[in-house]
Amino acid sequence: MDAFRNIFGIRPSPTTQIAVGSRSSSDFKIEFLSALKTNSHFRQRGFNGLVARYMELSPDSPEGSKEDQVYRIELLATVISECMLHGETEALHILLTNERINTLGVYGRKVGMSLQGWETLRDALPKDFAAPNFFIANTTIDGSQCKVVFEVMHRMPALNNIRLFKVTLQDKDFEGVDCLCLSKPLLLDVYGGYKSELMVLKIVEKTQLRELNMHGCDLNDVPQLHVVQALKEHQQGIEALWWAPASCFPEPVKLLIDVCEKNANSLTSFSLEDADVSDALGDKTIHLARLTQINGLRVLNLKNNYYIHDSILAQTVQMLRDGKTKLRELNLYRTAAGPLCFQELAIALKQNTTLTRLTISWNAEGVKLLMEAMEFNETLQEINVLDAERHPEEVQQLQAYGHRNRELMYQRMKVPNVSYIQGGMGVLLNSGQVRMYEDLANFAATVAYELDRESALHLAVLNRAAWADAEEAKQDWDKKRQQDE
After folding, report:
1. What is the pLDDT, as a whole number, of residue 14?
2. Taking the C-alpha atoms of 336, 338, 344 and 349 in order, what is their torsion angle to the nearest 10 degrees?
3. Which of 15, 104, 174, 390 is paired with 317 by a 20 to 30 Å CA distance?
């Protein structure tokens, strides 16, 4: 290893030491070093340092700490990006072929990534490159570059997660650019950046999304409307939507609720943050409440929407009464929730048996109403009251009800034997009284928590979605129990 350090003329930083391991002299890394076509004396010193630290990088290990894993991901992404900038196709091919890479990251840095850089990555990718995640950060992409980026995506058959972080799109050469159809449903996450709709529209038109997150994006009303219209026309099967661009506008928000209803059979989570929707809801009556009528919706996040009227929120929470909604999480933090909303919420909580997590801002009268309602509620397990630093006692009293409900849940889960639950499951199935897979999930979660995974799987195999819910519920309950203890 000293030989590598002497070649590059540096010493590793203290951070580098965590990555040193027995794999540092592996054959493929020597091959990678030999394949670098530019003499080290003509490369930038920073690139030399990256290569030296990469040569010392230990193999990927599940036993490694989280810090080790993060360091490894960031270092690999930086080395890949530098190889792209320097046109090191052969060396990059060796790295991508031999490293086990879960996330293919490209960092543009200040200079951005050139067309030649993207072509280098495309040509270096091994056949059927297996990374499921693609992360692009801090760069500018025009039409000709975007075309190559889509070609890179098409050569990643396992791709199911694309993240764009502060990526700026340029109008130049975008005519005729098409996203090649990708094989798996995607999570598309867009944070910040400018004119991101140029790439988002291409992906939405050709690829099925399972989740779309748009947050902090600099889009005005027309681009937002184009994206939402494309969602309505081309997408069916979306599981989660997070809509929080730098500023929201009425027409896109109206249409977004239509998108939610179109995806009613699949949508489980909807977040509408930082939106001025006071005009988007027209007559202020039913538009937002339509969301709670989506049977599969589990999470509704409306935080930081100061302009949603108290009457609209009252209409929305009223839907928690009728037993049709399966909503588990509701976030009303920093909304205009007032007397009407809290009165309806208190009435609903006396009857509702699905909501397990509630987040609100401090409201003295509202907290009082909720405490009265919680005397009758045995399912709401977590109540977050924010902006309440001056009222710790009242908040603790309200949260004590959530603690009580968690204990009640633990007690209910102490079932004596598996055969009893299996018999109960059979009765439910034969009687046709299983309305949705939550019934199966509750049984499976009960067994998983107190007994064993195999027995729970035996029950949940009747509905694969139930097992996913059971696992998620078990993890939540484990965390809560640890916090309580």
Report:
1. 31
2. 90
3. 390
